[in-house]
Amino acid sequence: MTDPRPRWTRAQQRRQTEDNILAAAREMFARLGYDRTTIRAVAKAAGVDAGLVMHYFGTKDALFSRAAEVPAGDLPHGSAEETVEALLDSLASRLASEPVASLAVLRSMLTHGDAADRYRAAAGPQLNQITASIPADDADLRASLLSAIVHGVIIERWLLQFSGLADASPDRIIELLRPAFRALATAQTPPSTTDDPNR
Amino acid sequence: MTDPRPRWTRAQQRRQTEDNILAAAREMFARLGYDRTTIRAVAKAAGVDAGLVMHYFGTKDALFSRAAEVPAGDLPHGSAEETVEALLDSLASRLASEPVASLAVLRSMLTHGDAADRYRAAAGPQLNQITASIPADDADLRASLLSAIVHGVIIERWLLQFSGLADASPDRIIELLRPAFRALATAQTPPSTTDDPNR
DNA sequence: GTCTATAACCCGATAGAC
DNA sequence: GTCTATCGGGTTATAGAC
Predict the structure, then answer these.
(1) Which domains does chain A have, with CATH numbers?
(2) Phi/psi of residue B194, each to 5°?
């Protein structure tokens, strides 16, 4: 009375197993980083054999590449003010819940070259768009600083779990950062301490 | 005709060798992180035997602890404005040249628990002083954000070597960040987009 | 297709010769 | 004090049985 036909086809079954492995790998890469994540542990977490993981993905590096695929987040074009708001929106959602694949990249980027490359590749386009929206000679530096702030906050919230940032409400963080972002995105020489050498 | 008395005493010689090992370990921990730094490689870089490193420091963890000793950087007490300037001064010097021991901690903090603890211990006092100087209910969150910004900039400059931050002049970075820091350190509801629900 | 066994290598740590 | 040799364990990756 057993049905000889499988509920899923071979290809579907394989895909399902691959997804399980990738999910386990993502979680582990995000929590432990590249080096301390072992193929054996990933396989066990996914309920399969370690040899199977190698058979599917070839190498540990390839597994990381697949597990750490993160969509290139891009911002809509617009004025500096609009870009600031778009950047704050993006940050707000990443403060609410950061994708595991992205956390895997962030966790490993300081000690694994491929992860650092992935990080640069993901941040690059966003950086260019921010730069383009800022009307100033040093737009690139301003954009880099905005990007560094976003990443610093994300890292301390999700990876280091700094008290004060780990459990603060995204809205409050956004409200506090808005003036700082505006100050960076709008070119204005502060009427402050030093004299202008260009006069 | 050889002089039987050594130029240095045994204790001095040992101290010299220890310093060589620590310097090599610092450089390697800072460049590769905790996991990828091996005792063997440190010994080779220091020109000694791997067994000697173990004999001096006992374990790899203990070697890291010694190599990653970083003085607890504290800020002078003062008003919010003064604290901002002190924080900017501190950042300026860290942008000019960051100590190798500190880079070792930063490089390893996402993947090595001890390094993360060290990082929190070093950032903690500074954070408290910033918090104390800010007259606002959410002073702790504002201080955390200031700290996150500093660390984000340092990481992208020294560890990820993000173009735009890696080779920008410290002075320009400081000038750009000053308004942003002031905005965070001085409690003011922005006269901006949203209505004030507390009226 | 899936899994077991193992090869080949590198690690931290230890014991002991000199 | 310094260094050689090695132990015991872990890893990725491969080869082959079922």
Answers:
(1) 10-67 (1.10.10.60), 80-185 (no CATH)
(2) -90, 155
